[in-house]
Amino acid sequence: MFTSFRLLLFLFPIVAVTASAKVVSEPITYTHQDVTLEGYLVYDTEKTHGKPAPGVLVVHEWWGHNAYVRSRAEKLAQLGYVAFALDMYGKGITTTDPKKAGELASQFYGKPLMAERARAGLEVLLNRPEVDSSRVAAIGYCFGGAVSQALAQSGAPLTAIVSFHGSLIPFTADTAAKNKARILICHGAADTFIPDVDIIAYTKSVNEYKVDSQFISYSGAVHAFTNPGADDIARISGLNGIGYNEAADKRSWRHMKAFFKEVFGEK
Q: What is the DSSP string of the chain?
């Protein structure tokens, strides 16, 4: 009995170490145009089986690289992907103030810098040995949804992108020719931040230039519908028109998973 007890004591630490070693996560510091950025890489070695796996770049909301975007990267790791939550603003730069968030995001909208800064994060992911660089996608939330679109339209080597409650960027003949990604837009039907005219312009552009794009609209969902903390953010910041919608969050995540299975050729 004593021998068995010692054996159990010996075995338990191994199990604990093995369990804790399944998920690998690390902050990664990188730079772009003299700006120091810090992203978050995460993957599950049990799910990837030690082989290169599809990579997913994750782009944060206009609040900056925070716990929410890292949690989304961790959910992707649970699905077997190597996820990298990039940083658009700079190491440690986040806010809960809508005015400040708008200032931070405004430096990118309509400018080449949006895709260029995102490309720096993409390069971090592409250069990881854990990633199958022929199967890489980008997803983004709100501001990050627009960033993902801009990155694809710049000609980045992406298999697919998914935009969750993001601003819409219509294609031009030039950006459609550069684009390599298939696209899924997950939109809140009650989102007052995205005017109908933008939806019409985007839809017209993908039809005109024959872009492979899907647009799914979730009834009753407002801006930031995937973020469980959106209601608290609205209350604290005084920002109207944002809120969590559990049904839309779960449905859009399922739609993303099915989309990735298709574009990555998974069974």
A: -HHHHHHHHHHHHHHHHHHHTSEEEEEEEEEETTEEEEEEEEEEHHHHTTS-EEEEEEE--TTBS-HHHHHHHHHHHHTT-EEEE--SS-TT-B-S-HHHHHHHHHTTTTSHHHHHHHHHHHHHHHT-TTEEEEEEEEEEETHHHHHHHHHHHTT---SEEEEESPPP----HHHHHH---EEEEEEETT-TTS-HHHHHHHHHHHHHTT--EEEEEETT--BTTT-TTHHHHHHHH---SB---HHHHHHHHHHHHHHHHHHTT--
Full-model pTM: 0.91
Which tokens go with 58?
Answer: 């994750």
pLDDT in tens, the chain (267 residues): 333 323 332 333 332 333 445 999 999 999 999 999 999 999 999 999 989 999 999 999 999 999 999 999 999 999 999 999 999 999 999 999 999 999 999 999 999 999 999 999 999 999 999 999 999 999 999 999 999 999 999 999 999 999 999 999 999 999 999 999 999 999 999 999 999 999 999 999 999 999 999 999 999 999 999 999 999 999 998 999 999 999 999 999 999 999 999 999 987
Contact 85, 60 (CB under 8 A): yes
Cα gap 261→267, rounded to integer Å: 7
| Residues whose CB falls within 8 Å of the CB of residue 10, separated by 6 or more in sequence, listed in order | none
